[in-house]
Amino acid sequence: MISERIEEAINKQINAELYSAYLYASMAAYFDANALSGFSNWMRIQVQEEISHAVKFYQFLNDRGGRVILTALCAPPTQWPSPLAVFEEVYKHEQDVTRLINGLADLAAEEKDHMSKELLQWFIAEQVEEEASADKIVQDLKRVGDNGHGLLMLDREAARRVFVSATSSKT
Ligand code: FEO
């Protein structure tokens, strides 16, 4: 059985992960509208990753005898001034998610919930990767600046990203 405080916090995190998917889907649509299909692919993979994060929390809560409660998602932004602005927002958003995961880990420690702590270790490691991959693209975009050829090269690189499910690894 899981404590009510952890159950409520995990339900909030499921909403946050699904909102992340919604935000990245909106960013994919922005890139499609601006003929940058590689960055759109990167965002679509990110959508799948975020949904798999939500499912991982969902399955965990269910397995622990908790009740999954889905709540309304906020509407994401739809327009950005540049590809760089999009990825700067991704990086900032992932830092916000890291703060949420850290808060959950603090709560699990407070509640002496070792099973939740173990699950959250996986998410803490995942956030290192999430922040690093967004920051790398921010740095690359800053480097190419107004160079259209450079932007096209980065778009092609982003087209090669593939999806790896979070639920395929054991936690
Ligand atoms: Fe589910 Fe991008 O953190």
Sum this structure up briefly.
The chain is mainly alpha-helical and 171 residues long. Helix content is 74%, strand content 0%.
Write the layout of secondary structure elements.
Blueprint (H helix, E strand, L loop, with lengths): L3 H30 L3 H27 L19 H28 L3 H31 L3 H11 L13
Helix pairs in contact: 1-2, 1-3, 2-5, 3-4, 4-5
Bound molecules: MU-OXO-diiron.
The site of MU-OXO-diiron has 7 residues, from α1, α2 and α3.
Your description of this structure?
There is one protein chain. The protein has a single domain (4-166), classed as Ferritin, core subunit, four-helix bundle (Ferritin, Up-down Bundle). It is elongated, with a radius of gyration of 17 Å. It is built from five helices and no strands. Helix 1 packs antiparallel against helix 2 (37-63) and helix 1 (4-33) packs antiparallel against helix 3. The chain is an all-alpha fold. It starts with a helix and ends in a 13-residue tail after the last helix. MU-OXO-diiron (FEO) is lined by residues 17, 20, 50, 53, 94, 97, 130.
Keywords:
171 residues; mainly alpha; Ferritin; 0% strand; elongated; binds MU-OXO-diiron
The tally of domains stands at 1
The main sheet comes to: none
Poorly predicted sequence stretches spanning 5 or more consecutive residues = none
State the distance separating the first and last CA atoms: 18 Å
Which structural class should the secondary elements be placed in? mainly alpha
Give the count of helical stretches.
Answer: 5
What's the architecture in CATH terms? Up-down Bundle
Q: Give average pLDDT, whole number.
A: 96
Strand content: under 5%
CATH superfamily: Ferritin, core subunit, four-helix bundle
